[in-house]
Automatic annotation (TrEMBL):
Keywords: Chaperone. It comes from the Eukaryota. Residues 847-931 form the Tubulin-folding cofactor D C-terminal domain. The keyword Translocase does not apply. GO terms for biological process: microtubule cytoskeleton organization; post-chaperonin tubulin folding pathway; tubulin complex assembly. The keyword Transmembrane helix does not apply. This is Uncharacterized protein. It comes from Cafeteria roenbergensis.
Length: 1215
């Protein structure tokens, strides 16, 4: 059985109950008990955190946890209340309430809050005490809490929830009001501008005599502006209090009117605070709207009575709308709002309180106020002043709730007689196959059948409500769409059949390609609600089911990703609702498309939640609809369960193969893979889809050979890169799968195989994604690279074998996540005489116990580097490119592993008995990559002529013993190199050269090195990339230790880098040259053969001192050099003159400093190191700038022609 992290029951129940009991026994007066209570709450919080996602497991034990906590809090509050009453009676007058200081009680309330947070307050408050005697102690506790502190906000939250239970006492409130809270209420009214009064305050007075109702409202209104959960608790308390039978006729309408004024004033105040919006409002005449708003508030008869105030000033603060309206013309002042005190939290709290009142109030009491409130708030939300209401998802959700509850106020509550009723439902009978026969008949009233309860008028406001709900279905936040969907279901259930059918039609139109993903998601949620309630009649299924099937495949591309997983998840919910709502006979015509679509999502969806949701809907369908509608349903559910679908690769391959064994669903699965998933935006999904086809193709091989392969071959020419890539991968995987069949050769027609062989040259033009697929295709289809070399060419003259070489390179093997495993390289693979196959089998074959993970660098490189010994030019070039891209890549793990493996192989190859031929072949092929692979075609030549360098020969992979007619540097002028290859190739050359004198080549004259130096210089001569230049410097420095004149030629080019226009290049070159001189110190001091200068003279062997004017090195040798004759410094010394002096100059010169000083120091190094320096270059910084391909700042004379000349380049290097 698969392991699961889900919990089965409340494991810590006994411990939690024990800590609750211990907490209830602690004493408030003891400090140690307070500390122990804090520790117990912390332990309880850790226990409850484990059940945040499975809170339903607490339901069975909720009473044993919540009731003791609230009982202890109730006992403490009663004791505190009794002490307060006693002190008041002894004082002879009202005694002010003290701050509530009971630490243990606060910890009990904190633990009760954690229960509400985990399970939800609606479930927890059912276990709160509900005795009427607790009403005043609870209100007194709320008044005693520190209004300016935030320490006990959790206690305030729980007390407000408890108060929402206590206010439901089934008798008039004034009968349980002792009047002892009068002084505290007066103090609260005096502090109305404090922290608890962020919303418009009530006036003074008490029309009900007792005053406790006004006190509760004053406490709650101070909490409606809170930013935390206290606001929701206050709204719940207000909603239940005002909908009491003795208050809803006198207070409810007044509170709703006050709340609407607060919302209007807040929105207008917010609009005025926005400079841009205020300017638009002024230009649009919104100030007149503000005056109209103020006049409407002043004319309103609504208001809290302020006349009932006793002589002592004691009383309960209550709102007086008329009095506040006369405060001034400003709507904010008319609402009693403090200046700047209104914000989004206030609007959220007030609107939540109104929505709660609409939920609990009676229709008759709300009939007058609901319509006006809905119209006014909707009007504000739709105007420019309502930007505040539209900017918050929570506020838009409350607006949707207000809309649906306004509609329910104007529609009589009833169970629609026209709704679909399924009849008896039995899972056992369905699974036995007797469901349709044994069940009671379902019924849906015919259209012609009259309905006795449908004869009532629909208020015009209901149409506005439905329009608001339909708009909410398009909202871009899920919580708003979900609330709107539930509202659609509730309102449609009270409408006549004709009106409800129009609502269903409007919802169905949301599932249209012209709509966004939000409309699709909201439409699916609404359809599920309508179906679940029986409001989606069977006659509508013919229009709805195709839309739902489309929603199951909804995946809209957005940039580099896509949206649509939430739509597919909601579509699965619709299918789940269909299975529960309709009888098998009704669903039978639609079972096949729904079942196929659900299985495609369950097996092949990218997201795990969608796969599991589709599996749950399919399971519900099998159970509710029976085996007749869903053949093989139980077997499919056994294979495609919750856990097996958790792994995407497992679902695509193994689970899909088990499901596809049933022919009923096989065709839909194959079509979905080919038509949808192979062109998916995610490359991993395309690869998995190709593998899935390989698993499914042997189940229907004739179809795969005659239909699938031709279709995939045609798609390889698609203009869409994703389609081409997916089709190429699929061809390779299907061929690999079919090749294991005994009749493979006879199965695939010759014409199909011929078209498959033509896929690779077409993929050459398809981009980099095609190369990984080509690597699989070549090996799978038995396409020998040599065949393509003989028979095919590309249009611009580059031979096709280069495409195969690139496809075979290590990069393709490295990128592909499922490269050849052991079973792919067995003898059963097609034998076509491909060069190197005998060597590649033991090299690539995985270990007997497990398959090789070719995604791991430490696995792939030890297997691929030995392939450099394959004596065939077809593979050598591709391997060289792949290795260079790995060694010069950006991934640290790949670079480290590839470098170490290549270095070890190079050291072994350089030994006397090593594979020196393979090493030299690799070096020559790296130079060929540096030369370039594509010839430059002159304009107008039509691709028939190459540049002056000519076309490469058919066997253009350079061999060490071949006689190359022209230098690579001369060929480079006619070839275009890929810039991404230059730095990796240079870094690879540095790795190889650092292992010894590998660059001398097999020829005694060191022809490889003589070809490499001018070619490397040519490739960096005009480069503005410092990394490329420094990589070239590393290679040349590694060649300094080679035999003469190779070392001297390399050193001359390095010295040229010291005068490079980029300061960073000069500095790093100087540092690395210093290190090189230290390494080859002995070589410099031994002396070497004389060199010939550019003037044809042999140097006299003068030392470094003779190279400096005067024979001595002055203190300021740079200044002395500036004053000397430049021609005297253009001498050529012997190799090994003064390395110590050169290192001193290198270490003392700021190579990234003044350019004139840098050039002067560089010129001295020529003589000190015995390197020939062209006289035209000495002391001339301008020439160096032009020499590197940058325009001169001082002269308009162009020297680019000379720089581009191959003759000038060779002379410059010293040949």
């Amino acid at each position: 059985m698969a392991a699961s992290s889900e919990l089965a029951f409340f494991e810590e129940h006994e411990r939690f109950v024990a800590l609750v009991s211990e907490l209830g026994a602690l004493d408030n007066a003891l400090p140690e008990d307070a500390a122990r209570a804090k520790a117990l709450v912390k332990e309880g919080a850790d226990i409850l955190d484990k059940y945040q996602e499975q809170s339903h497991l607490l339901d069975k034990h909720m009473e044993s946890m919540a009731k003791p906590l609230m009982d202890r809090a109730r006992d403490d509050l009663r004791a505190i209340r009794a002490a307060h009453v006693k002190k008041s009676s002894e004082a002879g007058s009202g005694f002010a309430l003290q701050l509530l200081d009971a630490p243990v009680m606060h910890h009990c309330l904190t633990l009760a809050y954690l229960l509400c947070k985990t399970r939800g307050w609606k479930r927890v408050i059912t276990f709160f005490p509900h005795e009427a005697a607790d009403l005043e102690p609870c209100v007194a506790a709320l008044l005693s809490l520190d209004s300016e502190g935030t320490t006990h906000w959790k206690s305030r939250y729980v007390l407000l929830l408890w108060l929402s239970v206590l206010v439901l006492a089934p008798f008039p409130v004034h009968t349980i009001d002792s009047g002892d809270l009068g002084p505290a209420a007066a103090a609260l009214a005096a502090a109305a501008e404090g922290a608890l009064s962020t919303v418009p305050t009530f006036g003074t007075g008490d029309p009900w005599g007792g005053g406790i109702v006004g006190t509760i409202l004053c406490v709650c209104q101070g909490c409606l502006g809170s930013a935390g959960p206290v606001r929701d608790a206050a709204a719940a308390c207000v909603g239940r209090l005002l909908t009491r039978p003795d208050l809803e006729t006198s207070v409810l309408a007044e509170f709703i009117g006050w709340g609407v004024k607060v919302i209007e004033a807040t929105c207008l105040s917010h609009a005025r605070a926005d400079p841009g919006l205020a300017e638009r409002l002024a230009s649009d005449g919104a100030e007149g709207d503000a005056e109209e708003l103020t006049a409407r508030q002043q004319a309103s008869p609504s208001g809290w009575d302020t006349s009932a105030v006793d002589d002592s000033g004691a009383g309960t603060p209550v709102w007086s709308g008329a009095a506040a309206a006369s405060a001034g013309a400003d709507p904010a002042a008319a609402s009693g709002a403090p200046a700047g005190g209104l914000d989004v939290f206030v609007v959220t709290g007030v609107l939540a309180a109104i929505v709660r009142a609409f939920k609990h109030g009676q229709r008759d009491s709300l009939a007058d106020a609901a319509g006006e409130a809905f119209c006014r708030i909707s009007q504000v939300a739709a105007s420019e002043q309502g930007q505040l209401l539209r900017s918050s998802a929570s506020l838009r959700r409350l607006l949707v709730k207000l809309s649906q509850r306004t509609g329910l106020v104007y529609l009589p509550p009833r169970v629609a007689s026209w709704r679909y009723q399924r009849g008896q439902r039995s899972l056992l009978d369905n699974l036995r196959g007797a469901g349709p026969a044994a069940a009671l008949p379902s019924r849906a009233r015919d259209a012609e059948e009259p309905e006795a309860d449908d004869d009532f008028d629909i208020e015009p406001v209901v149409e506005d409500v439905i329009d608001s709900l339909l708009t909410g279905l398009r909202d871009h936040d899920t919580i708003v769409r979900w609330s709107a969907a539930k509202g659609i279901g509730r309102v449609a259930g009270r409408l006549p059949r004709e009106f409800a059918d129009e609502v269903v039609e409007a919802v169905a139109t949301l599932l249209d390609r012209a709509e966004g993903d939000g409309a699709w998601h909201g439409g699916c949620l609404a359809l599920a609600e309508l179906a679940r309630r029986g409001l989606l009649l069977p006659a509508r299924l013919s229009d709805v089911v195709p839309r739902v099937v489309s929603a199951l495949q909804f995946d809209e591309r957005r940039g580099a990703t896509s949206v649509g997983s939430h739509v597919r998840d909601a579509a699965c919910y619709v299918c789940w609702a269909f299975a529960r709502a309709y009888s098998p006979s009704v669903m039978r015509p639609w079972v096949r498309p729904l079942a196929a679509a659900l299985l495609c999502v369950a097996l092949f969806d990218r997201e795990v939640n969608c796969r599991r949701a589709a599996a749950a809907a399919f399971q519900e369908s099998v159970g509710r609809q029976g085996a007749d509608n869903f053949p093989h349903g139980i077997a499919i559910l056994t294979a495609a369960d919750y856990f097996s679908l958790g792994n995407r690769a497992h679902a695509f391959t193994h689970v899909a193969r088990q499901v596809a064994t049933f022919a009923t669903y096989r065709g839909a699965l194959l079509e979905h893979l080919v038509g949808v998933k192979l062109r998916h935006w995610d490359v991993d999904v395309r690869r998995l889809s190709a593998r899935a086809l390989a698993y499914l193709a042997p189940l229907q091989p004739e179809w795969a050979a005659s239909d699938l392969l031709p279709r995939l071959t045609a798609e390889t020419t698609s203009a869409d890169l994703l389609v081409r890539h997916g089709a190429t991968l699929a061809i390779a995987e299907v061929l690999l799968s079919l090749a294991r069949l005994s009749n493979f050769q006879a199965l695939i027609p010759y014409s199909v195989m011929h078209n498959i062989r033509a896929v690779v040259p077409r993929a050459e033009k398809a981009g980099a994604d095609g190369w990984a697929a080509n690597a699989r295709l070549i090996r799978a289809g038995g396409v020998a690279p040599g065949d393509a070399v003989v028979h095919s060419r590309l249009g611009d003259g580059v031979l096709l074998f280069e495409a195969f070489e690139r496809a075979q390179c290590l990069r393709a093997a490295r990128i592909h996540d499922e490269e050849p495993s052991g079973e792919d390289i067995e003898d059963e693979s097609p034998s076509d005489g491909t060069p190197g196959r005998a060597l590649s089998k033991p090299t690539l074959r995985a270990s007997p116990s497990s398959e090789a993970n070719f995604a791991a660098p430490d696995v792939v490189f030890p297997r691929m580097v030995p392939l450099l010994s394959i004596p065939d030019p077809v593979y050598a070039r591709g391997l060289a490119e792949g290795l260079s891209l790995a060694v010069g890549g950006l991934s640290e793990s790949v670079v480290k592993c590839s470098t170490s493996t290549l270095a070890a192989w190079a050291r072994a190859a350089g030994e006397p008995k090593g594979d020196r031929t393979g090493l030299e072949t690799l070096l020559w092929n790296l130079l060929l990559l540096l030369r370039g692979r594509i010839a430059k075609v002159p304009a107008g030549s039509g691709g028939e002529q190459a540049s002056a360098a000519g076309k490469p020969s058919r066997d253009s992979t350079i061999q060490p013993d071949s006689d190359e007619p022209a230098s690579l540097a001369s060929q480079a002028t006619g070839f275009r190199v890929e810039s991404r290859l230059v730095v990796p190739v240079l870094r690879t050359l540095h790795v190889l050269l650092a292992q010894g004198r590998a660059g001398e080549g097999s020829a005694k004259d060191g022809r490889w090195a003589r070809e490499a130096i001018p070619l490397i210089r040519y490739r960096v001569m005009r480069s503005k990339d410092p990394v490329r230049v420094m990589s070239a410097s590393d290679v040349l420095l590694a060649m300094v230790g080679l035999r003469q004149p190779i070392g001297a030629a390399a050193l001359r080019t390095v010295l040229d880098f010291l005068a490079h226009p980029f300061p960073k290049v000069r500095r790093i070159t100087g540092e690395r040259l210093f290190s090189t001189l230290m390494i080859f110190d002995d070589l410099f001091k031994t002396g070497a053969q004389p060199e010939t200068s550019d003037h044809g003279q042999v140097s006299s062997g003068a030392g470094a001192e003779e190279a400096v004017p005067g024979g001595e090195r002055p203190a300021s040798w740079i200044q002395a050099l500036r004053e000397a004759d430049p021609s005297e410094t253009a001498v050529i010394g012997f190799f090994g003159c003064d390395p110590d002096g050169a290192m001193a100059i290198l270490s003392s010169t700021a190579w990234d400093g003044d350019e004139a000083d840098v050039v002067a120091a560089r010129d001295v190094l020529y003589a000190m190191l015995g390197v020939a320096a062209p006289a035209a270059r000495v002391g001339a910084l301008r020439s160096d700038g032009e020499r590197w391909g940058y325009p001169s700042q001082d002269s308009s004379t162009a020297t680019a022609e000379g720089a581009d000349s191959y003759l000038a380049l060779v002379r410059e290097v010293g040949y």
